[in-house]
């Protein structure tokens, strides 16, 4: 895998994790 692909995947994972944390905490 190239560096750019890894960076894009990491960004997507961070966004997904943030959404999950938001739902658990306050429901956004």
UniProtKB/TrEMBL annotation:
This is Uncharacterized protein.
């Amino acid at each position: 895998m190239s560096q750019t692909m890894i960076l894009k995947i990491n960004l997507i994972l961070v966004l997904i994790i943030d959404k999950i944390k938001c739902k658990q905490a306050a429901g956004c």
